[in-house]
Amino acid sequence: MNDWMVRVLFRAGLVLAIFMSAADAVAQTKYALVIGIKGYPNFADNPLRFADRDAKAFADFIMTPEGGGFPAANVHLMRNEDAKRVDIFRELVWLKTHVRVNDQVYIFFSGHGVEDENHQVFFMPYDGDSRIPEAAGIRSDEFLKAVRDRISPKQLIFFIDACHAGAAALPGGTTKAGEESTIALEWKKELEAAPEVNMAFLSASSRELSREDPGLQHGLFTWFLLEGLRGAADSTVIGNKDGAVTVEELYRYLSENVPKRSRALFSATQTPTVTTGFVPDLRLSRPGVVGDTRPSKREGTIQDALDAYRSAYELRNVDALLEVFPKYQGVDELRRKFSDVKGAAMALGKPIVTLNSEKSATVRYQEYSLTYTTRNGKLEQIKPRPAEFTLRKDGLIWVIDAVRFP
What we know:
The protein contains 11 helices and 18 strands. The chain is of the alpha+beta class. The protein has 2 domains: 27-290, Rossmann fold, CATH 3.40.50.1460; 302-404, Nuclear Transport Factor 2, Chain: A, CATH 3.10.450. The strands form 5 sheets. It has a 6-stranded mixed beta sheet, with helices on both faces. Strands 14, 15, 16, 17 and 18 form a 5-stranded antiparallel beta sheet that branches. Strands 4-5-6 form a 3-stranded antiparallel beta sheet. The protein starts with a helix and ends with a strand. The relative contact order is 0.09.
C-alpha cells in the first residue's frame, strides 16, 4: 500500500470517526423506571395510601411535552404487587440492555424506607417486611450502586419519596447522628463517575419521616415535586419566569414548601435534600411550551374521599379532615381530643355505594368503628355500628357533606 492510499484511508477513517462521534453526541434517548408501592402485605401497622398514585402521576407527567416527552414505551411503571424485589432488579436488567452513554434516565421511587436496629435504612419492595428489612429490602446507599453498576448514562436523576431517604447519601445508608453533613464517599464516587449530570432529589433527611397528605392524596414531596415541575417553581417568586424549571428552582421550591406544609399539618419536620452532582442550571421541565400548566387536583373517586377521611383520623389531622369533609362540626373539640391521642385506627367494613346522580352519592357501612389510644395508655372505642356518608362532587373531587349513624 503506497503513501497516497494510506493518507486517503486515514482521512476517511478520521471523517467517519468524527461523524460517528457527532451522531453519538446528538442522539439521546430517554428512559424512566417509576416505582410506587402501597398496600404492603407485611406493613399492616404502617400502611401507605398514595404511593402508587405518586408513581402514576410522575410517569404521566414526564411523558408530556412539558415534562420531557419520555416515550411511553421507555417509561416502565411498577406499582404495588408488580414491584417485588426480583421485579425491580429485572427492570434494572432492562435498563442495562437499552441505555447508552448519551441517554437520560429517571429513577423514581415512592414507598417505605425502614430503619433497622443498626440504624441502616432500607428501601422496601412490595415483598419487604418491616420486622426484617434486610431480608428483602434494598439498603438505601446500595440502591444507587445497583443502578450505576448497570448503566452509565449522560444524565441520571433519582427522585426518592421514602422515610429516611437522606440516608442514601450517607456512609452505610445510616441514620446515625453526626453523619448528616458527610456525603458518603461511595455515593460521591458513583455520582461523579459520569461526565455530566448524576444527582438525586431525596424527600427527607436521614432522620426524618416522609409523610403523605390525605387532603392532597399524594406524598408531600411528590405533590410539590410535580407542582414545581409543572411550573410553580418557575412562576412563583422563587423562579425567573422564563418558562423552564431548573434544578435550582425546583430544589428551592421543595425546600420552601414541603417543610412548611409538614409543620402545618403534622407539627413535624420534613426537609428535602439533594446530593452531589447538583447542576443548578439544568432544565428539568419546560411548562412554557404548552402554556399554563399549573397543577390542579386530579379527578378523584368516591373511594379517594373515604380513604382520605379515614387517613385524617388515623393521622390525627383535623386540617386534612376539613379538606375532604368541609362541613364537619365540632372542629375545636376534635383538636383538643387529638392533642391527647397517641394513635387511632378506623375500620369501615364493606361499603354499599349508591350513586344518586353524577354529583351525588350515598355510601353505607354495616360496621363503622373507631379506636383511640391516649398518651397515658387509655383505650377509647366507638363500637361497631352502621354509618351513612353523603358525598357530592366538587369540581374534580368528591367531598363529604354529612356522616350519620342510623
